[in-house]
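To make this tangible, this section ends with a sequence with its structure tokens:
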Amino acid sequence: MRLEEKLGQGGRMLFSLEFFPPKTEQGLANLYDRIERLGRLGPGFVAVTWGAGGATAQRTLEVCSACQGVFGLETVMHLTCTNMDRRKVDEALDGALAAGVRAILALRGDPPRGQEYWSACDSRFQHAVDLVRYIRERHGDAFSIGVAGYPEGHAERGSADAAEDFEHFVAKVQAGADFVVSQIVFDGEAFVAWERRCRDRGIRVPIVAGVVPIQSYQSFRRLAFLTKVRVPESLRQALELVKGNDQAVRDLGVAHAVETIERLRGAGCTAVHLTTLNLETTVSRVVERAGLVRAAAPAGSGAWVDDFPNGRWGDARSPAFGGDSSAYGALMVRFDADQARRVWGEPRSLDDISALFSGYVSGRVQSLPWCDEPLLPESQRIVAELQRVNGLGFWTLASQPRLDGVASADATHGWGPRGGYVYQKAFVESFVPGAAFPPLLSRLQSAGPRITYYAANRQGDFMTSAFSAGALPENAAVTALTWGVFPGRAVEQPTQIDKMNFLAWRAEAFQTWREWAAMFPPGDVADFLQRTADECWLVSVVDNDYKSADDGAAIWRLFV
């Protein structure tokens, strides 16, 4: 049975699950375990995302092949045409066929980061509608073809172009689409009204509603920012009340997702598409509580524990590692050159960059190319040191003060279930200009074992002091950053640094320099930014003595 036929059967509501290709081999192995467990819930299909320009092509095909061939799950492969020429498109489609995948979600994809405007690599693939036509022309009915729908308009175009945006959507369907997957909605009414409009326009293919269970307050805020979807005021207010309690946020996320699904089901919606962010517990709860389970529930034993979503410094073994939208360069997707110059200026010297970072720390600048939100409240305790360090020419990207047994209910520093205590080591991450790196490195090497550092440059050179006794240099040890103890739970450790996750984000960090430079025409500014990126180092520093009487001052004495 073709996918569109399954979706069009009616009766009991179907659900589907979306995964992204993990950044690490360990994360991939653990994702397979997770997919196997979630597969026991009986999803109608699973979908695997595709990186812009085919950045994740091999890994996407690998995951699709496992889902389809090993786990026996009907699989939809995302395929974008950003920076994709005909050869790459053909290779992707042939790879899907070889893997047994018979459904494609045809997308234009996000603009390649760092380009002022999106531009097609191949004139045949300007928009998703071109990809739909090409797949149909080359492969006939070999694939069920899906397209994306935007109940609240495309994030790049805004509500002012909603009518034109809808016409583009209709054209995609008419070009040969077999089904539609909508962008996520936090407001079920928005989808219901949009689906009614689609049916009134004569669209008869199945439409699957996009729903994302809220996993954390920060990921919710960033997702709402990137997608520009409407957030009901009741949901926003409820989240504000519990934003400092991670468990309560997830509970609220489950309740809201279930409520949305029930509203969609009551309006006649026949299928929902759940964005998992490669996390398991919350999604399982939503599926079970919404009555969507179509098979035996997962056993649960051996499940990878990452209840508290990890960001940059999460465990690289987790399938969710690196999947948070808080990753480096989030704003580079949305800022055009004019916005970038207006917010970040046109730096031509190291002092200009120091001034930009100092402005961010002081609150005068609301974002950086690497940071899409103002400084977090927990860093206000160390803002004077951050201002001093940035003024000296060490450009800080992330930081946290030390904590020694702060109540998990604390409004600024708390996280996790109530009744627990949280701990963290003082930490700062910064770009260090080339000339300043050797003396800083000397001070770092003299400060052990209290101080642990990780350092890398754009060329791939790496060094660290994080070694277990007797370990080889290539086996850098894990350094815990944050942990918590809670009633009835094992010790939670949501953030840590190891060689694998540090190098993964080093690549992103230096890529963002390139993308920032690409916002400018060839010349002084672009050349300066590229040269600075080539010469500087990314350095993460951890003060292991979280019980120190000097309140973590040792870490700041290194920056002189």
